[in-house]
Amino acid sequence: MDNKTTKQLAKAISIEALKMVHRANASHIGSCLSMADIVAVLYGSVLRYDTKNPTWPERDRVIVSKGHACAIMYAVLAEVGYFDKAMLEEYGTNGTTLQGHLSHHVSGVELSTGSLGHGLPVACGIALAMKHASAATRIFSILSDGELDEGSNWEAILFAGHQKLHSLVAIVDYNKIQSFGSVSEVLELEPLADKWRACHWHVVEVDGHDHEALLQALKNKSSQAPTVIIAHTVKGKGVSFMEGTLAWHYKSPSPEQLQQAIAEIEAMP
Ligand SMILES: [Mg+2]
User: If you ran DSSP here, which 8-state letter would residue 269 be given?
Assistant: First the structure.
């Protein structure tokens, strides 16, 4: 897809996620909108996958560690054809596989997540196995900034750098807000790029809403070392009353707020 099309994909999945969270009276829409552009570029222009054969051995692997942002993932997986979009109506209802955190029972999801700090370590294990097998598979892991407070991530970061896991690309959704406050208030991460660099990672910093910048960063990963893309993002991106606010980590939009949010997303360039 070209940038225009990935932007359309980002809009479509943002609107679906808004509707899903509204219907289910669920949380985490701010976290979803923060990474909509990242997953749109990934699924629209970067990843190798076959929706008719979800376990195709040569597929690229996507491990979304911030499993609470599952609505945007279910939306993109449905949009690209892993399952019928009508199934999104089930999100958050009793008995559905589309639960409030990511489930590997959903087609296209590699790993159930929600307990933070688990995704990157698992991605490291897959990347090491792929390296031993000399496979061309790439492994992408999307992390929140807040979950970098988990020590398990730093073990994984040390390990991947030491093992030169060049097929691994970590993407940090760096929206500067975590569940109980701003990242700088709760546990400062800066200088974040320097920390990854010190652990022998190739580091790229981008505007996480700039599709061309994301595409270049995702396509031009290092062939020698693991790559981290530090994506500077805005929590609640695209909806004026959600952007940069902690409350929308939790709140669900009212019918009126949903209509306004959809109108604002549709009006984005
Ligand atoms: Mg955050």
Answer: -
The domain over range 6-266 is classified in CATH as 3.60.15.10: no
Ligand 1 center from residue 249 Cα (angstroms) = 9
For the chain, give every domain's residue range. Answer: 6-266
DSSP states along 163-202: HT-TTEEEEEEE-SEETTEEHHHHS---SHHHHHHHTT-E
Percent of the chain with pLDDT over 90: 98
User: For 84-136, how does the pLDDT look when each residue is reduced to its tens digit (9 = 90+)?
Assistant: 999 999 999 999 999 999 999 999 999 999 999 999 999 999 999 999 999 99
**Which residues are placed with Cβ below 5 angstroms of ligand 1, an ion?**
144-146, 175, 177-178
Closest CA to 120 of 151, 142, 146: 142
